[in-house]
Specification:
- It is a single chain.
- The chain is rod-shaped.
- The termini are far apart.
- With about 130 residues, it is mainly alpha-helical.
Length: about 130
């Protein structure tokens, strides 16, 4: 034994010792120190595991937030693409209708009308100034 139990006035009474010292003495006397060592290792392992769980939960929460932001961005991009497509189709329809109107114009008739208008304007100016 490491400790000898004796009654003396110079030693601290067993029950006055701190709890962990009492436990160590009893474990030594009974030869069960391995249980305390294993218990301490398990406590440390549990503490480490809880820390890892908290870390993983935080990582998962952050990934979920990033995924939600990405989904919102995708939705916004799809909405903008749809609006652009609608505007693009509307512009194309407008241009097609203008082209059809231009195709209906008789160019030779327009050129002749323009020449007649120029002659008319020149004659009118000549009449006004004379």
């Amino acid at each position: 034994f490491k400790h000898i139990v004796a009654l003396s006035t110079k030693t601290i009474p067993f029950l006055s010792e701190r709890a962990h010292i009492q436990r160590e003495m009893i474990e030594e006397l009974l030869g069960v120190t391995q249980l305390s060592v294993k218990s301490e290792k398990l406590r440390e392992k549990i503490k480490d595991t809880k820390t890892e769980i908290d870390s993983e939960e935080l990582r998962i929460r952050l990934i979920k937030q990033q995924n939600e932001k990405t989904e919102q961005t995708i939705i916004e991009i799809k909405r903008k693409a749809m609006l652009w497509e609608k505007g693009h189709l509307s512009n194309a329809e407008t241009l097609v209708s203008k082209i059809i109107k231009l195709q209906e114009v008789e160019i030779d008739t327009e050129i002749n009308d323009h020449k007649i208008y120029i002659k008319y304007t020149i004659l009118k100016l000549f009449i006004i100034h004379n």
